[in-house]
Amino acid sequence: MKKNNWIIAGIDYGSKLAGSTVIAFLKDGKIQLSSSEKKKDADAFILKWAQQSAPKQIFIDAPLSLPGVYTGLPYCEDYFYRQADKELKAMSPMFLGGLTARAMKLKRQLESGNIQVLEVYPGHLAKKFSLKDLGYKKQLIHLPAVLQKLAPQLEEFDWEAEPITSWHHLDAMLALLCGIRYSENKHESYGNKEEGCIHV
After folding, report:
1. What is the mean pLDDT of residues 152-169?
2. Bridge-partner residues for 116, per DSSP?
3. What is the pLDDT of residues 131-159, one digit of tens each?
4. Burial environment of residue 133 by CB neighbours within 10 A (0 to 12, 13 to 18, 19 or more)
5. Where are the domains of the chain?
6. pLDDT tens digit string along 52-110?
7. Could you tell me the end-to-end alpha-carbon distance of the chain, in angstroms, rounded to an integer?
C-alpha cells in the first residue's frame, strides 16, 4: 500500500479527564493532531475519532497486556514486569493500574471495529534519536530544537510544527513515528507475542 493511502495513528495516552491525550494521525500523506478536552472522557474521544477516521492501525503509548503470570504462561513468574518492560526498562503495567485497564479495554473496543492496536514506547524512540540531549520533556523552550532534530524522520510527509505545543503532542508524533517504522518494517520489537510486545 502506498504511504499516501495510509491511515494510521499514534496516541499519547493520558489520564481520562486530564485533557492530555493526543492523537497524531497520518492521512492522505499529511500528519495532523487532535487533542482531548479537559474534564471530558479521553477514551470516548479516541473511539469517536476512530469511528470517523477508520484507521487501519493505532499505535498507543500504554500497556496493552499484563505480565504473563496472570494469564498462566508457564515461563512467566514476575508479577510486576513483562519481558518487554524489562528489556526497555519501562514502567510496570501494574504500577500504572487504572491506565493499563483502560488501555486494554480500549484495545478490545477498537479491535471489534477491525482496527489493529499495537503498543509502542515513544520514550525509547526519543532515546534512540538522542532527543534527551536537546531537552526532551524538560522546559517547553526546548521543544523547537527537539522538533528540528525529529524533522528528517518525517520529511516525506506533509506536517507543520505550529500545532505541536506540548510534550504530549510531541509524544503522539513519536508514537506515530513508531507506527510508520512498523508499517515500513523498520521497527524493533521487544518482549514476546504471548505476553505482549512493545514496538519502537
Report:
1. 95
2. 57
3. 999 999 999 999 999 999 999 999 999 99
4. exposed
5. 3-195
6. 999 999 999 999 999 999 999 999 999 999 999 999 999 999 999 999 999 999 999 99
7. 21
**Does residue 1 surpass a pLDDT of 50?**
no
Residue 199 C-alpha from the chain's centroid: 9
Give the integer Cα–Cα distance in Å for 66 and 104: 9
Stated length of the chain:
200
For the record, the C-alpha cell of 113 comes out as 471495529
The x, y and z cell numbers of residue 132, run together, are 534527551
User: Distance between CA atoms of 120 and 184, rounded to whole angstroms?
Assistant: 15
Looking up cell 500504572 gives 96
Q: Quick one: cell of 17?
A: 479527564
The phi and psi torsions of 58 (rounded to 5 degrees) equal -125, 130
Over the stretch 26-53, which tens digit does the pLDDT of each residue have? 999 999 999 999 999 999 999 999 999 9
Q: Which residue has the cell 489493529?
A: 116
CATH number of 3-195: 3.30.420
pTM over 0.90: yes
Nearest to 104 by CA among 68, 60, 64, 146: 64
Give me the pLDDT at residue 172, please. Answer: 98
Q: Kindly state the cell numbers that stand for 68.
A: 504473563
User: Any residues with CB less than 8 A from the CB of 142 and at least 6 apart, and which?
Assistant: 134, 135, 136
> Which phi and psi angles does 84 have, rounded to 5°?
-60, -40
